[in-house]
Amino acid sequence: MFAVVEISAQQFTVRASDTLTVPLLDAEVGSKIEFSNILLGGEESNITVGSPYISGSVTATVLAHGKGDKVLVFKKKRRKGYRKLNGHRQQYSQIQINDIKLG
User: Fold this and answer.
1) What is the rounded distance in angstroms from the CA atom of residue 99 to the CA atom of residue 3?
2) How many domains in the chain?
3) Is residue 88 left, alpha or beta, with left meaning phi > 0 and alpha meaning psi from -120 to 50?
4) Which of 28, 62, 90, 96 stands 20 to 30 A from 35 (CA)?
5) What was the pLDDT predicted at 62?
6) 15-24 burial code (b ≥16 CB/10 A, e <16)
7) H helices of the chain, where?
8) pLDDT tens readout for residues 57-89
9) Distance of alpha carbon 54 from its chain centroid, rounded?
10) How confident is the model over 28-64, as pLDDT tens digits?
């Protein structure tokens, strides 16, 4: 069984016991989270498409929080002597899918 779930305005295809890296969630490490925005789901032969959502839920456990790799942003204007270097590290949460229930 699989489902396409909307998590933090992004869509992820999930199956039971998958481990995902998603944008930072407001939850403690080890806590359980339930997602109810299911866009599509079912078995391989029987797929249900929502309009916009399907009734049901996907439960997950938060494994860890962290920061991604540094992304460098370099700005320059030629012949002006203007150079600027900025860095950014996006925060993420790592979750493991426990159960998918479609209604």
Assistant:
1) 11
2) 1
3) beta
4) 90
5) 97
6) eeeeebebee
7) none
8) 999 999 999 999 999 999 999 999 999 999 999
9) 18
10) 999 999 999 999 999 989 999 999 999 999 999 999 9
Per the DSSP assignment, residues forming a β-bridge with 85 are 74
In this prediction, residue 63 carries a pLDDT of 97
User: Across-strand partners of 60?
Assistant: 33, 97
Average pLDDT, stretch 21-25? Answer: 96
Q: Shortest CA distance to 35 belongs to which of 13, 64, 65?
A: 13
* Range 4-9 average pLDDT: 95
Measure the CA–CA gap between 49 and 42, rounded to whole angstroms: 9
Tokens standing for 26? 């407001």
What does the CA dihedral 94, 99, 100, 103 come to, rounded to 10 degrees?
-140
Q: Give the domain extent around 43.
A: 2-102
Tokens of 62: 């938060």
